[in-house]
Sequence to fold (462 residues):
Amino acid sequence: MRLRQGLLPRCPTCGQELLTRVDLDAHPGLQCTACKYVLPANRVMDRVQELSSATARTCCQDKAVEGKGTIINFVHRDVIVMEHLTLGLKDFARRRREEVMDQWKKKGGETTALVLASKPGWLERIGALLPKKWLHRRTSELFEKALLLEKVLAVVQLVEGVAWLHGEKRIIHKDLAADNIMVRFSGVRNGKSNWRGEHRPEMNVSDILNDITGYPTFRTLLIDFGLADESTPTRSWYDDDEATGQNKGPFLSPEAKNRRQDVGLDQPLGFSPEEKTFVIPPEMRGLSLPLMPGDLISHSLDEEHVHDLKIEAVLDGGKVAKYSGVAPEVQDYRRCIVERPLLEPHDIFALGALFYFLLSEDITRMEPLHALVYTAQEKRRPIDGGALRGLDLYPGVRKAIRSAFWQDELIVIILRAMTRGLPGSYAKTRIDRGCEAAQRFLLEIKRLHHKIQRDIVSTFWR
Fold:
C-alpha cells in the first residue's frame, strides 16, 4: 500500500484527516489516530469504497459541516431500499402477461358483470343476467387492453428519453436496439408476494384493471451510450458483421445498413476546384440512398485521407454536388467510398422498429415490417390507415401484433417513425437535425396512450 503525502483520504468514521500507515500483525494498513478506525491492506479491494464515501454525522449541531453536502443521520437506523428487478424488453412483455393473467386466475377468472361503482344498483343486477361467456370475453378484452397500455407506456418513456437527448443534450444515441433497453420494476410482483394486497378477497377485477391502468410500477431505461455523440458520423461498429445480425439488424435504419458504400466509376470524378463542385456520376445517382449534405466521399487510393470530401449541398435536381475539402489533383480515381452520417432520424427509425418488436414480441417478424416501410417509401404513400391498407404486406404486418386492438393506429405511428419525407412522416429526410421528429412521435404516442387509458377506465360493463 503506497500513500502519497497530501492525498490521504478522510477517515470514513470520524471525518478527520488523521489516517496514517501502521504495520499490523500480518499486513500494513491505514489507521485513524482519532477514532482508531483500521483498514488492513488485505481488505482494500472489498472495502475501498469506504474511503470515498461521504462522512456520516450523528447530529446536526456541528456547524463545521454546513454547506459541505455531508450526510446527516438523524436516527441510527438501517436504510431499506425497495427491491428492483430489471428485465430486457422482450422479457418485460412476457413477464407482465404472466403476472396479470395470474392475478385474474386467482380471482377465479372472474366473469360477473363489473359495473362502475357510481352506477345504480339495478344496472348491476341486470349485469348478473348477462351470458357468462360474454362476460368472460369482455373481461379478457379489458385485460388485453391493459397489457397493450403498458407496452405503449414503455415506448412513451423511451421516446421521451430520446426527445430529451435530441433536444436538451443534442446527443444522438445511434445504438437503439432491444439489447440496449431495460425495464426496471419497483417492488417486484412475482405472483407469490402479496404486500400490495393483490390477493385480498375484496380486490376484484375492476381493482386490478384500475391498478394496471393508473399506477405503473416500471420505468424503461436506455443503456449503452458507447456510440452516442453529437455529430460524428462514423463508427466502425456499423461495419461489423454482428451489427447487421439478428440482434441489431432489425433496428438499423437504411443509412446504418448502408453506412459505407463502395462505388465503382466508369469515369473519374470531374472536380471544379474554383466552384468546389462536381457532377454527380450516374453510379452515385443510382445508389439506394442518394447523396445528401453531410455525406463523406473518400477515395480508395487515398490512404492518408487527405482528400476526403464533405458534401455541403446537392444542386440542379441532384445532378451537381458542392463539397468542402481538398479534391485530388490526379483525375484517375475510379473507386470511392460514400459514408453517411447517423443523425436524429436514425434514432427515430430505431424507436419505430422497437415499438413493433414490443408489440409482436417476435424478432423474426421484423423483416416484413421493413419490406412494408420500403414499399410505402417507394410508392410515396401517405402514412395513414387508408393509404397503407392498400399495400399487399399490410395485412400480415398488422396480424403479427399480438393485441387485437388499435392495430391500425399502432402501425401508422410505427411507419411514421420509420419513413422519411412522406405525408405524416416524423422526419423529412435522413439528415434532419434537432428534436422535432422525436417531439412529433412523443405527442402522437401519448395521445394513443390516453385514448387506450380512457377506453379502459370508462368502459361501462367490465
DSSP finds 14 helices and 15 strands in the chain. The chain has a mean pLDDT of 79.
